[in-house]
Write a sequence for this structure.
């Protein structure tokens, strides 16, 4: 996959103060602007959280679809046909959408502005946008093509990964064999270590957030809980994550760093591991789930050098030159059979205000 980053004239998120917005004590809102306008080139972000310095915007690369440059900043929801709903949560919805002008398919994430503001998730939305900008530099992160807005929603247009997520697949097959588990774990490590190299910790690693592309390679998705500027000995203490996957140090209110991505306190100690689990698999789990972060594998010792990964060619893997052990069944670019039918069967629609 070509991950070369180039300039693009599609929309980007700008976070700015709204001084005349008297109805909200935060007096902050989200705006979408086009970097093709000279005054917005290289714009920095206003109002960073936790006293951190602003992070410069990284422009997106050119979209793979053919859209005249002069029109690239004019996308609206009316440029897309919403075919299916792929997921839904408190944040909003994710749709399978077709770009009318080219017939290509994308995953469009719609965030409700009022919910973002009520839940005080403005900074999370900003962080997700910034991390998605960096994702073009790595093959195992979900890629963003453009963003735009309506009166009620913010939209992220992302690549459509119709292989489904790992939760869907493990529910179907009940367990992954050793080779498949090793492959997924290795590609996930590559993606997480790339984020760490950029000073970003992920904080929401779970099967639901690991998608498969059509070839069977993984893509890490959903960057709303990421934390930026975590370089060197930097630590944070924000309580966040999915309950079943929160690390011990977060539950205890302790400061943490990149070691948080390696732990899961819901996994029991060694006597409760199944007997059929290979020795190498058991050993790496024991070392990853050490409760003391400073003793955890990945902090103490290089996780890539563990015997569990002894057959992994890391250079070939990062270049996507290793054939995936499983290729999802995909019949067409719009196939959504690898997604939860509870959502697929629901009619895909936005509010009336967004369609007019």
């Amino acid at each position: 996959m070509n991950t070369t980053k180039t300039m693009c004239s599609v929309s980007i998120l700008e976070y700015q103060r709204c001084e005349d917005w008297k109805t909200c004590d935060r007096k902050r809102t989200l705006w979408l602007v086009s970097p093709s306008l000279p005054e917005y080139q290289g714009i920095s972000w206003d109002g960073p959280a936790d006293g951190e310095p602003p992070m410069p915007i990284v422009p997106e690369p050119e979209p793979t679809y053919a859209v005249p440059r002069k029109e690239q900043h004019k996308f609206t929801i009316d440029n897309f046909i919403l075919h299916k709903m792929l997921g839904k949560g408190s944040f909003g919805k994710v749709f399978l959408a077709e770009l009318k002008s080219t017939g290509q398919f994308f995953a469009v994430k719609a965030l409700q502005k009022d919910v973002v503001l009520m839940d005080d998730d403005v900074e999370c939305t900003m962080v997700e946008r910034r991390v998605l900008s960096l994702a073009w530099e790595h093959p195992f992160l979900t890629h963003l093509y453009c963003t735009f807005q309506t009166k009620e929603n913010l939209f992220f247009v992302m690549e459509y990964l119709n292989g489904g997520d790992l939760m869907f697949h493990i529910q179907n097959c009940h367990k992954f064999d050793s080779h498949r588990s090793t492959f997924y774990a290795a590609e996930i490590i590559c993606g997480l270590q790339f984020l760490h190299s950029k000073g970003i910790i992920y904080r929401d690693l779970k099967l639901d957030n690991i998608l498969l592309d059509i070839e069977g390679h993984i893509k890490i998705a959903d960057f709303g809980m990421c934390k930026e500027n975590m370089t060197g000995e930097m630590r944070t203490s924000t309580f966040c994550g999915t309950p079943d996957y929160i690390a011990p140090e977060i539950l205890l209110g302790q400061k943490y760093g990149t070691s948080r991505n390696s732990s899961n306190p819901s996994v029991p100690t060694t006597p409760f591991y199944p007997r059929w689990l290979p020795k190498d698999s058991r050993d790496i789990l024991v070392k990853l789930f050490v409760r003391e972060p400073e003793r955890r594998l990945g902090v103490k010792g290089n996780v890539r050098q563990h015997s569990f990964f002894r057959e992994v060619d890391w250079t070939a893997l990062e270049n996507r030159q290793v054939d995936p052990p499983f290729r999802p069944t995909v019949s067409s670019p719009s196939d959504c059979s690898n997604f939860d039918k509870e959502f697929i069967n629901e009619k895909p629609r936005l509010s009336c205000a967004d369609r007019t």
User: Anything to note?
Assistant: Helices lie at 113-118, 122-134, 166-173, 178-197, 248-251, 279-288, 314-318, 341-344. The first helix runs from residue 113 to 118.
